[in-house]
Design a protein that fits this description.
The longest helix is centred in the C-terminal third of the chain and has 18 residues. The protein starts with a helix and ends in a 9-residue tail after the last helix. It has 18 helices and 23 strands. The chain is an alpha/beta fold. It binds flavin-adenine dinucleotide. The site of flavin-adenine dinucleotide has 46 residues, from helix 1, helix 3, strand 11 and helix 18.
């Protein structure tokens, strides 16, 4: 789920944010990060994908004394954590992960372990803006806004940022630790049977409040509030409640680069996985590298490939029906981001951060260069679902013009200051095929356990196997979980492969 920066900022400012801190879920076994102890004889492990999930799994297993190889299709590590440095004056933007809250223990923990500098992603004294139902209005500190359409008295009192906790707060308090066995708690299970929109309506939210929530980052997930499980909405709100979010100074890609330095030659770039075969004695991965087909055999494999990619890879023998269903049915949100560089930060002159929530075709806006110095600045649109598909189908030129016109409804004076721009269309990225996972009704209880479950000698990680989906923390958490599984399984007896 993420950037999320608008969602992140939207969430971090909620009234419940501060109260929720004490209840923030602790990540079980987080203390094991960097301290996995070898169990049984060292194993030979091949990891498919060199994003954060694969890198964390590889790093932990290598530290423990196993031999690892990471096969990665791209030239660089990091997958959906990629910093784009194509802008003037040294400005950079994030193609994927933008920021994270301090309770994301894996992200924060690794950044600190590797000596990376963190910067809080906020600037005081600026406001956000909304454009909903044809009206533009400002959102002040704490979410105070003169909303120009009907809302219930309690909704007005909660303010824009207080709406999620007004309706979901009681459920958020029951989330606990999503890594605990038998999660979710009984009281939350029924939430997985309905959509988030249905839950909000059942709880009496007005049409106006639902439109505001749909315009916020929550609405970027999947294909809108009626496409995601209510349980997913509650967890999404719960796992990022603190006020301060952080970015890695110099670009978030410094995190995957730091992992890569530590796994060294085990990282094989431009290695495109094509087929996986396993039997009782081992797993063989067939991959293409520099036009040559190569094979590597391992005791175990950790597969972190996003499911839309894994779906197209030949697996012998085929996975169980449950796993196959999870691979087919768990989807990634289509995401289009359009970046535009301006000579001056005209929006800041109007005391705005660049954060915008809208029901326009661009959905959300933010400024990825908010905390970078200089006169120039970049504004970005951040769009999910059907609107992302529509924007993604335009030519770059058309998209830049369209997005600038729509952004003009939020911020004045853009046209004369515009210099250049570019886009990142995640659903058209050949090695991602989407932005981040969303869970439809029924999928958290019905498919997520199967998504995580090993198949013989093949283990699974990646944000799509974590409740911190859409976060770097989800990728890192799942990589640690899979590393622990593999390490523990090393001393186990023979494997049965169907
Ligand atoms: C638009 C967007 C905004 C986000 N915002 C935030 C945010 O603000 N904060 C935050 O914490 N997180 C954010 N995230 C989420 C975060 O980036 C992801 O959860 C995380 O990076 C996923 O890591 P992963 O290892 O699971 O998957 P990936 O990073 O996708 O790794 C999978 C790897 O497999 C490789 N691969 C694919 N096919 C093959 C093949 N056939 N052979 C070999 N290799 C292959 C890919 O190249 C990739 O490197 C955002 C993501 C996106 C897209």
């Amino acid at each position: 789920m993420s950037d999320s920066i608008n969602r992140r900022r939207f969430i971090r400012d909620t009234a419940l944010g501060v109260a929720g801190l004490a209840l923030a879920p602790r990540i079980a076994r987080a203390q094991k990060r960097g301290r996995l102890k070898l169990e049984g004889p060292p194993q030979n492990i091949v990891i498919l994908g060199g994003g954060l999930a694969g890198l964390a799994a590889g790093y932990e297993l290598k530290q423990a004394g196993h031999t690892i190889t990471i096969l990665e299709a791209r030239k660089q590590p990091g997958g959906r954590v990629r910093t784009l440095r194509n802008f003037s004056d040294g400005l950079y933007v994030e193609a994927g992960a933008q920021a994270f809250p301090q309770e994301h223990e894996f992200t924060l923990g690794y950044a600190v372990d590797f000596g990376l500098s963190l910067q809080p992603s906020l600037k005081f004294g600026l406001e956000s803006v909304a454009h909903i139902r044809g009206s533009r209005f400002r959102i002040g500190a704490g979410g105070v806004a003169e909303v120009p359409f009907p809302l219930r008295a309690s909704e007005r009192q909660a303010g824009i940022f207080g709406l999620p906790s007004l309706y979901l707060g009681d459920f958020m308090n029951q989330v606990g630790n999503p890594r605990r066995a038998n999660w979710p708690p009984e009281e939350l299970r029924p939430l997985d049977e309905i959509s988030l929109e249905q839950l909000l309506r059942d709880l009496g939210a007005s049409d106006g409040a639902i439109d505001i929530l749909a315009a916020s980052q929550l609405g970027v997930l999947g294909f809108g509030l009626d496409s995601i499980s209510a349980l997913d909405g509650v967890v999404t709100e719960k796992i990022a409640t603190t006020l301060v979010f952080y970015e890695i100074a110099g670009g978030n890609d410094l995190l995957p680069k730091a992992f890569k330095q530590r796994v060294k030659k085990a990282f094989k770039k431009k290695a495109i996985v094509q087929r996986i075969e396993q039997d009782e004695t081992g797993v063989t991965v067939i991959y293409e590298r520099k036009g040559v087909i190569e094979r590597i055999t391992a005791d175990r494999v950790i597969c972190t490939l996003p499911f839309p990619i894994l779906k197209e890879i030949e697996v012998i023998p085929t996975f169980s029906e449950e796993k196959q269903r999870a691979i087919e049915e768990i989807k990634l949100t289509p995401i289009t981001r359009t970046y535009m560089q301006f000579r001056t930060r005209v929006w800041e002159q109007d005391r705005l951060t660049g954060d915008g929530i809208t029901d326009l075709s661009i959905q959300n806006t933010y400024s990825p260069t908010l905390i970078q110095g200089g006169r120039r600045g970049v504004l970005a649109s951040y769009t999910g679902g059907q609107r992302a598909l529509d924007l993604g189908d335009m030519s770059e030129n058309e998209r830049q013009q369209h997005v600038r016109r729509e952004m003009g409804k939020l911020f004045g004076g853009l046209d004369s200051e515009y210099e250049m721009g570019m886009s990142q269309i995640w659903h058209k990225d050949k090695w991602a095929k989407g932005g981040f996972t969303y869970f439809e009704p029924g999928q958290i209880t019905g498919l997520l356990p199967a998504a995580q479950h090993p198949e013989g000698r093949i283990h699974f990680a990646g944000e799509h196997t974590s409740l911190w989906h859409g976060w770097m923390n989800g990728a890192l958490e799942s990589g640690n979980r899979a590393a622990e599984e593999v390490n523990e399984a090393g001393s186990a007896e023979a494997i049965r492969v169907r």
